[in-house]
């Protein structure tokens, strides 16, 4: 039967959820729950990420691409389009720019357009926070942060909620940016110290790396037994934050194995054949209790947080529902 022109052009309503609305309805708790839940669904096989497209477009030094997936249980289908424009900060803009499009999985119709900049930061912080919650030693006291860019304060705030930290130490290539981390520590009444990467390794029980580095910033023998590392900056081929030997010595977990070995921190150790894909565990298995996670107080655990599309879709879907419920989303007829 022929489709009538009316059916092809029938208008429908979509939601527009602004960056501002996202900030009002998605806090750290909502992001943590959404991300933990989707990691669990991924490990059970009820949600999956589609292959990532990420291209250097040869303009403005930008990396642009798509992260997408489908959560069959939550019925969330969509794509985050965007990337990284290194010159944006100089113009007063965030270097990461992205927008999430959510689609009706029953019809394919566009349901919502959701600002992705704040959500990217809060879901990335939730990812390392989930790893700390499930893998760090309960008695972790010193938190180390490598990196002091846009993501870093989100990372710090989310991490501080996971353990009873007594001190924060940090290093950044541009030391003047460390003030933003020091300010967060001041708010929490926590001592803060700027240190060298080696001194950071010697003191820290939990380390978050969140830089755009393309060579190791931390050497293996600088890391204490029992440390948990959340390596969050490496999300592209060629990037690297820690010595590849560390991945051979640590127990390695990730948000998604396919991304971990191709664009994540594990890409180098896997290429050097000192880490094998079977040795990498999706963190969802720890959340679902099908993997024990940390097995001893001496073990070094490392979470390779590459950033998956399902994280974006989970927080964007929660933002769209909450913004609609609170009258904070705009309705537009398409
Ligand atoms: P940003 O541009 O605001 O900050 C970049 C940080 O990296 C700064 O601390 C800078 O000093 C540091 N840096 C840059 N080049 C370096 C080098 N060669 N050696 C050492 N440090 C270097 O970026 P941001 O928004 O804070 O993001 C940081 C990184 O995290 C980016 O590379 C980004 O792609 C990545 N990221 C990952 C995810 C994920 O889900 N895994 C999500 C968002 C961002």
Characterization of this structure:
- The protein has 334 residues and is α/β, with parallel strands linked by helices.
- The chain has twelve helices and 18 strands.
- The protein has two domains: 12-119 and 310-333, ornithine cyclodeaminase, domain 1 (2-Layer Sandwich), CATH 3.30.1780.10; 135-307, Rossmann fold.
- Strands 1, 2, 3, 4, 5, 6, 7 and 18 form an eight-stranded mixed sheet that branches.
- The longest helix is centred in the middle third of the chain and has 19 residues, at 117-135.
- The chain is globular and about 70 Å long.
- The site of nicotinamide-adenine-dinucleotide has 26 residues, from helix 4 and strand 12.
List the helices and strands and how they pair.
Blueprint: H1 5-9, E1 13-17, H2 19-25, H3 28-44, E2 47-49, E3 53-56, E4 63-71, E5 76-84, E6 96-103, E7 110-115, H4 117-135, E8 142-146, H5 152-160, E9 167-171, H6 179-187, E10 192-194, H7 197-203, E11 206-209, E12 214-218, E13 228-231, E14 240-242, H8 244-249, E15 251-254, H9 257-262, H10 266-271, E16 280-282, H11 283-287, E17 301-304, H12 309-325, E18 330-333
Parallel strand pairs: 1-7, 8-9, 8-11, 9-10, 11-13, 12-14, 13-17, 15-16, 15-17
Antiparallel strand pairs: 1-18, 2-4, 3-4, 4-5, 5-6, 6-7
This protein binds nicotinamide-adenine-dinucleotide.
């Amino acid at each position: 039967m022929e489709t009538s022109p009316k059916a092809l052009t029938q208008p429908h309503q979509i939601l527009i959820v602004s960056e501002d609305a996202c900030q009002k309805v998605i806090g750290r708790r909502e992001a943590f729950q959404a991300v933990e839940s989707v990691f669990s669904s991924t490990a059970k096989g009820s949600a999956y990420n589609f292959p990532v497209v990420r291209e250097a477009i040869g303009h403005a030094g930008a990396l642009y691409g798509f992260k997408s997936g489908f959560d069959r249980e939550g019925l969330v289908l969509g794509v985050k389009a965007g990337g990284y424009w290194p010159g944006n900060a100089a113009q007063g803009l965030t270097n990461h720019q992205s927008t999430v499009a959510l689609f009706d999985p029953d019809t394919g119709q566009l349901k919502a357009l959701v600002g992705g900049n704040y959500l990217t930061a809060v879901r990335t912080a939730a990812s390392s926070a989930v790893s700390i919650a499930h893998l760090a030693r309960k008695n972790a006291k010193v938190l180390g942060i490598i990196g002091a860019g846009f993501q870093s304060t989100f990372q710090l705030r989310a991490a501080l909620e996971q353990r009873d930290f007594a001190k924060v130490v940090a290093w950044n290539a541009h030391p003047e940016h460390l003030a933003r981390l020091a300010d967060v520590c001041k708010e929490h009444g926590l001592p803060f110290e700027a240190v060298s990467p080696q001194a950071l390794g010697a003191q820290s029980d939990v380390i978050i790396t969140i830089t755009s580095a393309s060579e190791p910033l931390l050497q293996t023998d600088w890391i204490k037994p029992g440390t948990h590392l959340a390596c969050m900056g490496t999300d592209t081929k060629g990037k690297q934050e820690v010595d590849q030997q560390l991945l051979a010595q640590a127990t390695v977990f990730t948000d998604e194995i396919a991304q971990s070995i191709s664009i994540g921190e594990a890409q180098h150790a896997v290429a050097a054949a000192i880490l094998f894909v079977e040795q990498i565990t999706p963190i969802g298995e720890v959340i679902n209790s099908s993997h024990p996670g940390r097995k001893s107080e001496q073990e070094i655990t490392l979470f390779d947080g590459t950033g998956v599309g399902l994280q974006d879709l989970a927080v964007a879907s929660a933002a769209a529902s909450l913004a609609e419920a609170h009258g904070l989303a705009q309705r537009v007829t398409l």
